[in-house]
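As described in the Methods, two query proteins were run sequentially through the folding procedure within a single session, without resetting any intermediate state between them. The first query and its resulting structure tokens are shown here.
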Amino acid sequence: MTNVSERPGGEPGEEIGFVGLGVMGQPMALNLARAGTKLVVWNRSPAATDPLREAGASVAESVEEVFERARIVILMLINEAALDTVLQRGEPGFAKLVAGHIVVSMGSNPPEYSRGLAADILAAGGRYVEAPVSGSRKPAETAQLVALLGGDAETVEEVRPLLVPMCRETILCGPVGNALLMKLAVNLYLCTMLAGLAEAAHFAERNGLDLSTFQAAIGSGPMASDLTRVKIPKLVARDFSVQAATADAFNSTNLIAQAAQVAGTASPLLDLCRTLYGESVELGNGRLDMISVVAAIEARTAALGRS
């Protein structure tokens, strides 16, 4: 079932918490604030909160303050270690922090981790929704993300309207774990498709073809998409400024490989792309855009020339 709620925001006057203002989190929170959501935010690096303050959000001094003020708290954090640290999981403060709250995690984590976190939050008297998003920084800036929702139906429906200012669509995926598995399935397609696009551009360039003409050929055919419209110009210009980081893409391929192994599923394309993203990270491109996977392909070409 796919549907979009038409009721943005929470209850009148209710503050919503937002923790994690990185490459994705900051534009997501800004869209909430600009839509009139009464927002209280916190980030480990205080400078990232300045645009939120200017947009009308309150800036908390600590994570504890966010939870004191907001019943529903959205987390957009880089990995499970960051989530555990912010939530004080495994420490006495965890139960006090999450009891009576709805915790919404919008990052990408292993499904089994998410199920364990949900169980811990429930045992502490809180509720949990996983809501990983499909999209990179540009869709985050333009509120064109797609949120994949996992959790109990009642809590998901309570949270769903809050996501409207950030997302063009929300998709129900079932219980906790399923939304993250769906995100991994989507990312398998994304990561392999982008590596294929980078290899095609490299092939064209090495054969003396004009990359602007390559861009026109792709853009005029059935392979044209939002992805090609955004990424091919970056490949042409060698613009590796980050929209979705190579290290994050590599981490995603690792998560997919783990899930495939658990399910006993072959993933031959993913396995090769995982190697390529890893090679790009080793070349120092971890915090550059994931199109820097082309550098790994170029390095392999250079190695062929030396052999």
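Immediately afterward, the second query was submitted; its sequence and tokens are:
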Amino acid sequence: MASETGIPHTTTAPHRVVVLALDGVIPFELGIAQRIFGRARAAEGPCLYEVVTASVRPPGPVRSDADFAILVENGPECLATADTVVIPASYELGPVYEEGVLTEELASALAHITPGTRLISICTGGYVLAAAGYLDGRTATTHWSSAEHFQRLFPRITVDPEVLFIDDGDILTSAGVAAGLDLCLHVVRRDHGAAVANEVARRTLVPPHRDGGQAQYIQRPVPAPQFATTTAARAWALARLHEPIQLRDMADQESMSVRTFTRRFREEVGISPGQWLAQQRVERARHLLESSDLSVDGVARDAGFGTAQSMRGHLQAALGVTPTAYRRTFRAGALSGPGR
């Protein structure tokens, strides 16, 4: 469980993740939690998470959206043992998707979840959390193609269709399919720091952090032809994060006007160049705080924030902790698990 600062307490017990497999589940999304959480380890230590799968019915086969069923060996009672519950997408949500109400069977299963359990949805798994009332008054996301329907069905929720995932503390929602990977890696990073999350990402052959949001994946009705990208400018900036970088400097790398570069950057990445730079500098600072003995002032300089005060503000906004608190908590190998 987390402390009042949002930082997990140190303990030797693995954090228990229970994945709820519903009829019509998408096999790829069902396997994301095991792939990410199941591979997270402390430095030369044991697994940090224990991942199990549960059904809303007694143990037995659960239909998938493929041509095979999945044998689930745990019934809904298993949800009562969870520190985190993950709900992947299903193509057979029935009244949950059509009317925004839980079936009696699903409501009975969710009743096993104890207060304080962290909840995660992948893609349209968010419909289950919404129908159960967990998302009322919160901001959430889902696959961009379902966002309008989701908002109409659940008007008490603020739907953000642009982002890959939303971390609202004890409840986290993600967009479609691969965004579940982004969200689970984010949770590992939040629980155990960038070093552990980056190692999981490296072994999974996925980026530890994807830039931007869903906007870059939405097909436009009449897309304008583009022959130039902002890739070179991003690579140029990443190699110079420790230096002052102006928007004009980045635009010059692509031989574009600032206006054209900014528009093209947003189309490709989903956020502004300034927002992207701030994200990269935060990630750089996290890495240095975990892996180096640089002073906080030195980390601020190397990450491009200039001053410790500036870096402190960015980390507080992005992570909710100060640089000193982050370093104390997430030094490589210092934390063994968030516990139960």
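Confidence is low (pLDDT under 50) at residues 1-10, 218-227, 332-340. We note this only descriptively and draw no conclusion about the first query from it.
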